[in-house]
Amino acid sequence: AMALCLKQVFNKDKTFRPRKRFEPGTQRFELYKKAQASLKSGLDLKAVVQLPPGESINDWIAVHVVDFFNRINLIYGTMSEYCTEKSCPIMSGGLKYEYRWQDDNKYKKPTKLSAPKYMCMLMDWIEMLINNEDIFPTRIGVPFPKQFQQVCTKILTRLFRVFVHVYIHHFDSIINMGAEAHVNTCYKHFYYFIREFSLIDHRELEPLVRM
């Protein structure tokens, strides 16, 4: 019933293009299925995020980073018609927080962008990273790079900003679309995961601390 309800709420056409899939038959696909099964079983989210016995921490983080990316991408894709150059000329979280974009290509210095432009840059940047075999290896026996968790921290920190913007600037739209419960569950899951593995600096969490 929940899945049917979500299909009505989240129109597939509104999302950004489909992202990386876990290949069936691989160890990470099995881990992904295990994580999804725990999630669907209605277990306490704090328990769901814990590393299963005998599993590698980097595999567990990789599976969750890709899954959160896909789900947050879907949430923002559904919201995107309400988040425009006109409504959101600056990527922000209320009056107190402003997020500037920086990457190694076009934007070498932190640059003010509108929220839709920031989101577009963000999704493309994450897609490039998770599809890079040197950073997110998919072949069995290929080790993760030394800086893997640092890269994931950067990805998750920026994904957190999507929640900040959506909750502070577009919460009415979430409620009007009947998506509040789904977005809240996704946010809680994300929050417990980053806290479990200390993957985001606590100062980044301040905009949503009241939640």
From TrEMBL:
The keyword Transferase applies. Zn(2+) binds at residues 83, 88, 165, 170. One of its GO terms (molecular function) is kinase activity. SUPFAM superfamilies: Mob1/phocein (SSF101152). InterPro entries: MOB_kinase_act_fam (IPR005301), MOB_kinase_act_sf (IPR036703). Keywords: Kinase, Metal-binding, Transferase, Zinc. PANTHER family: MPS ONE BINDER KINASE ACTIVATOR-LIKE MOB (PTHR22599). This is MOB3C kinase. The gene is Mob3c.
